[in-house]
Amino acid sequence: MDPVPALKEPLRQPLKSVLGPATAKVMAEHLGLHTVGDLLHHYPRRYEERGQLTHLADLPMDEHVTVVAQVADARLHTFASAKAPRGKGQRLEVTITDGSGRLQLVFFGAGVHKPHKELLPGTRALFAGKVSVFNRRLQLAHPAYELLRGDTEETVETWAGALIPIYPATAKLESWKIGKALQTVLPSAQEAVDPLPPPLRDGRGLLPLPEALLKIHRPHTKADIEDARARLKWDEAFVLQVALARRRHADAQLPAVARRPRPDGLLTAFDDRLPFTLTEGQRKVSEEIFGDLATEHPMHRLLQGEVGSGKTLVALRAMLAVVDAGGQAAMLAPTEVLAQQHHRSVTEMMGELAEGGMLGGGDDATKVVLLTGSMGAAARRRALLDLATGEAGIVIGTHALIEDKVRFHDLGLVVVDEQHRFGVEQRDALRGKGKQPPHLLVMTATPIPRTVAMTVFGDLETSVLDQLPAGRSPIASHVVPAADKPHFLARAWERVREEVANGHQAYVVCPRIGDEEDDPKRAGRTKSPGDEDGKRPPLAVLDIAEQLAKGPLHGLRVEVLHGRMQPDDKDAVMRRFAAGEADVLVATTVIEVGVNVPNATAMVIMDADRFGVSQLHQLRGRVGRGSAPGLCLLVTEMPEASAARQRLGAVASTLDGFELSRLDLEQRREGDVLGQAQSGTRSSLRVLAVIEDEGVIAEAREEAARTVAADPDLTGLPALRTALDALLDEEREQYLEKG
Predict the structure, then answer these.
(1) Cα separations (Å) of 410 from 259, 363, 713?
(2) What is the pLDDT of residues 271-299, one digit of tens each?
(3) Beta partners for 140?
(4) Which of 231, 319, 323, 483 is placed for a possible disulfide with 207 were both Cys, Cβ 3.0 to 4.6 Å?
(5) Positive or negative: CA dihedral 542, 544, 550, 553
């Protein structure tokens, strides 16, 4: 019998059989940890040194933190309240310090007795809670704490060694409880199956896996932590790269129909119609794509290009080449608004070439159809028929294209727009629509640093469009600090009026719609002023539109656009705005991708600090699409010293998307980026930092390619197969969860 499954059993053991049901339940629900192996791979976020304290001065607001500090003083106050009218209410205020700053802890009511006895001046402890501001001072209300006495047996055991691991924790489960649970399962680390092939491990001087797990959870020295992390990074990078290398290897075995355009066909007719010449970058990328299309293996290419770099044109030329060669091309967009927009711009660019089979259509013309979920039954039937007979050479649509009912005559190319919203599974489903696997071109306007491209899109070759077409105007961006300088906000609305007076249009973007069921305004009234975080709810489209129409933009034609509107209404609003029948569009981020109105020159983003860096960059790309210069105003109430303000300053200071995407990654940590791109809820990366570990990723990619070329089925590497199955299982589960 195969010995491998027996090896991995201890790590497959469910936590509830080891830790007790209550703890196991919290771990499963809040941290996504289900087995002993999951917990062993829940690594410390950082380490506290005995005798060295966290900097209380740099605590992040609204985050759950764990600090090690010393009690400076403790005072018990009595006060009158509704529950204790005769001045019998009790409040314990404890000040803790770490030399760099001070922090107030507050306990109320019956909760004061235990801390009042235990938190005496001079006591050191671990404290955990959510940082909030009260009376302009940082405080933790009712924090959990664990005294660092070092006198009882258990504490000595738990805090053995000078380095105290601090785990990513939640309000329901403090870091030290996770530490204690790890103490229980750590012996199982000896049974961990090592996925790295021994020659690779020994060649690079990496620790064996059991030793690495031991050292990351119970390090004696900083060198232990370094060695453990170096080893665990390799695991993550290598297993992920092997998964991608196997995908590439499998794809390279697939047959495809080579598609070469006719010398004087549709593509030539289209190029002759273009009122401008292609940029150098567009020509180069088109050649790479045509080279791939001419081979008998499916193309798998990622086309990265800044907003407005002309990706759609490059993709359209590829689609026309395939139609020329007798095939069909499908373009998949993430939303209906975007599919309609692409359909409009493609038919406009093609003119009579998009009117195949109609009077006035060109000789080389084909039919371009739109297919979305909300189409009427008759239009849908017609579109499906045109696809099945081959009458339509090009179809543009949403997920509706992946449905079982959709049949193609001969699908030759699939173009996926804004890949980060499409999972690998969906790409595969569409692939299955061709008689042989179609060629695949994936487009994204989110600039992706090279390492992320290697990690997330490691199964694709990459092309980059990095120059803007001639005639594009620069966009000036400014931060508008509404709280510090209210007159700046007034000036922002004046600027919008000036743009409209000059015959242009403007967008106003808000983070929220404002028709949510549990109206935060009502909810806000019932909470005390010091509620959870004391922050007001994010500004909403419906509220702002009304305020602007009555106030600073009175007399202008203000319209609203958001994701919960009926598709027909959305389309009608977009058409009116595109036709210049509205001056100002107040919208949510539905306009983030693909909305193209060259006459819109100004954008005001409200509560800009609530958007991510790359999201702001995407939004900003909606203005300055014509010949008039664009203006983007980032409105925020965050104080000048805050990280949010620095982030907005960085966005305002550069238009280079690659520069911003690096910044975005450094700030958000890569879990989000990869999680979203692999369409998983939890990133499979735990110690690998995509930006810093560029070297490890690149080397792992080479090693993985070598390993897979030598042994595609990994027959000689059972432990690696086990690790791979675990990684792919997790991904598959996430797809199913996302439905």
Answers:
(1) 12, 21, 32
(2) 998 888 888 889 999 999 999 999 999 99
(3) 105, 131
(4) 231
(5) negative
528 closest CA partner among 110, 82, 91, 63: 82
pLDDT exceeds cutoff 60 at 736: no
Task: Look up residue 551 and give its amino acid.
Answer: G
Query: 589 or 317: which carries more pLDDT confidence?
Result: 317
The answer on pLDDT for 491 being more than 90 is yes
Cα 358 vs. chain centroid, distance in angstroms? 44
- pLDDT digit string (tens) for 114-172? 888 999 998 888 887 778 877 777 888 888 888 876 554 444 444 434 677 888 777 77
Average pLDDT over residues 668-687: 43
Tokens 């210069």 sit on residue: 629
Rounded Cα distance between 480 and 634, Å, is 6
CB neighbours of 351 closer than 8 A, spacing ≥ 6? 273
Return the number of other C-beta atoms located less than 10 Å from residue 81's C-beta.
Answer: 13
On average, the pLDDT of the chain sits at: 80
pLDDT band at 113 (very low <50, low <70, confident <90, very high): confident
Residue 233, number of CB atoms within 10 A of its CB: 22
In angstroms, the CA 588 to CA 18 distance is 47
Residue in 224, 215, 242, 174 with CA at minimum distance from that of residue 40: 215
> What is the end-to-end Cα distance of the chain in Å, rounded?
37
Angle at 134 between CA 114 and CA 605, to 5 degrees: 135
| Beta-bridge mates of residue 128 | 66, 144
**Confidence at residue 605, expressed as pLDDT on a 0 to 100 scale:** 94
Residues 576, 577, 582: CA angle, nearest 5 degrees: 90
Give the bridge partners for 561, in sequence order.
Answer: 587
What is the percentage of the chain residues whose pLDDT exceeds 90? 25
Residue 617 has pLDDT above 90, yes or no: no
If we measure between CA atoms, which residue out of 423, 395, 270 comes closest to residue 339?
Answer: 395
Burial (Cβ within 10 Å: 0-12, 13-18, ≥19) of residue 573: buried
Helices (H), 191-221: 198-203, 209-217
Maximum distance among all Cα pairs of the chain, rounded to whole angstroms: 95
Are 719 and 242 within 8 A, CB to CB?
A: no
Q: Work out the angle at residue 355's Cα, subtended by the Cα atoms of residues 350 and 359, and round it to the nearest 5 degrees.
A: 135
| Per-residue pLDDT at 288 | 95
Q: Please enumerate in sequence order all residues whose Cβ is within 8 A of that of 413, keeping only pairs 6 or more positions apart, or say none.
A: 259, 293, 299, 318, 319, 322, 327, 328, 329, 330, 438, 439, 440, 441
The pLDDT of residue 5 is 41
Predicted confidence (pLDDT) at residue 2 exceeds the cutoff of 60: no
d(CA 594, CA 276): 21
CA 23 to CA 613: how far, in whole Å?
37
Handedness of CA 498, 501, 504, 509 (dihedral sign): positive
Sign of the Cα pseudo-torsion (332, 512, 58, 481, in order): positive
